[in-house]
Specification:
Blueprint lengths: L4 H7 L8 H19 L9 H16 L6 H15 L5 H4 L1
Helix pairs in contact: 2-3, 3-4
Length: 94
């Protein structure tokens, strides 16, 4: 996993350990979504744009785990896809 728990906690401004399991789970799920979208495996090497996309989405999911803000989700999802787009494996899409 290229995005670490410590990075995600810093991104989310979390200073306690109570949500470590949740944040780790979000990192894994969002990285899988990024890999599915790009049709690539990022376990060996992850471009900075992909790591940024993962942190942005993890931050949204963590901050909005108890409520649903459709406008914020749309903006976050658009940023997520925009950061991932250049990393897509076009040949794997065929």
């Amino acid at each position: 996993m290229a995005v670490t728990l410590e990075q995600a906690k810093a991104w989310c401004n979390v200073e306690h350990d109570e949500d470590d399991k949740l944040i780790n789970s979000l990192i894994v799920q969002v990285q899988k979504a990024a890999e599915d979208f790009c049709r690539r495996d990022f376990s060996e090497e992850m471009p900075e744009t992909v790591a940024s996309a993962i942190l942005i989405m993890v931050g949204y999911l963590y901050d909005h785990r108890d409520n649903d803000d459709r406008n914020a989700y749309k903006a976050t999802h658009e940023a997520f896809r925009s950061l991932l787009w250049p990393n897509r494996d076009e040949e794997a899409m065929l």
